[in-house]
Specification:
By secondary structure, chain A is mostly beta strands. Chain A is built from no helices and 11 strands. In chain A, strand 4 (34-39) and strand 5 (45-52) form a beta hairpin. Chain A is globular and about 40 Å long. Classes of the chains: A mainly beta (121), B mainly beta (108). Chain A binds chain B through residues 35, 37, 39, 44-47, 49-50, 59-62, 95, 97, 99-100, 103-109, 111-114, and chain B through 1, 32, 34, 36, 38, 43-46, 48-50, 55, 85, 87, 89, 91-93, 98-104.
């Protein structure tokens, strides 16, 4: 069974750094693109970027380029989303999700449970 | 970037109604269009991929159609559990393009 298990709720102050995780199991981690999706309170879904764990090919959506870093650790089947300097506007739910069929041309068929990030002074 | 425009932004319907949500891409994307259902407190769920292919386990009352720039998601007979926000997403595999969602349609 494919599973993506995300790290828990995080509460940080503006200016702090943060790294959240997404641990995959039940499939060959290196063969499927992983994407990160943001859901801000009362807003729609936004794609931050995607990464191919096999070679760490990473593509950021323009709005998030330079704002976040997406990475993987193949040895433990885990993808990461990190911020070096958090802002209050980063407060949101963040989901990781796996793309189907080993490419990113099809939908995201398996999702993590989401990580709530709260940034407040 | 490819922009996705959904309509309507919100929709109120009755049980048993036929409901259609539309999604328009700012440039042709062939059939690289996916639909998701998102309920509060839950992760989004893939309903349709490649514009019209029903994801495994999704009820047959959901269907998708379209190609190029104009797409639609139809629920043939609305059920209580279909109350959710629905999003289209383009996944056109061109160099330097990025995945983008529509702004969502809230179905009540």
């Amino acid at each position: 069974e494919v599973q993506l298990v995300q790290s828990g709720v995080e509460v940080r102050k503006p200016g702090e750094s943060l790294k959240i995780s997404c641990k995959a199991s039940g499939y060959n981690f290196t063969n499927y693109w992983i994407g990160w999706v943001r859901h801000m309170p009362g807003k729609g879904l936004e794609c931050l970027g995607i990464i191919f764990p096999g070679d760490s090919d990473t593509r950021y959506s323009p709005s998030f380029q330079g704002q976040v870093t997406i990475s993987v650790d193949k040895s433990i089947n885990t993808a990461y989303l990190q911020w070096s300097t958090l802002k209050a506007s980063d407060t949101a739910m963040y989901y990781c999700a796996r793309h189907m069929f080993g490419d990113f041309e099809h939908g995201m068929d398996n999702w993590g449970q989401g990580t709530t990030v709260i940034v407040s002074s | 970037d490819i922009q996705m425009t959904q309509s309507p932004a919100s929709l109120s319907a009755s049980i048993g109604d036929r409901v259609t949500i539309t999604c328009r891409a700012s440039q042709p994307i062939s059939i690289y269009l996916n639909w998701y259902q998102h309920k509060p407190g839950k992760a989004p769920k893939l309903l349709i991929y490649s514009a019209s292919t029903l994801q495994s386990g999704v009820p047959a009352r959901f269907s998708g159609r379209g190609s190029g720039t104009d797409f639609s998601l139809t629920i043939s007979s609305l059920q209580p559990e279909d109350v959710a926000t629905y999003y289209c997403q383009q996944s056109y595999p061109a160099p330097r393009t990025h995945l983008t969602f529509g702004q969502g349609t809230r179905l009540e």
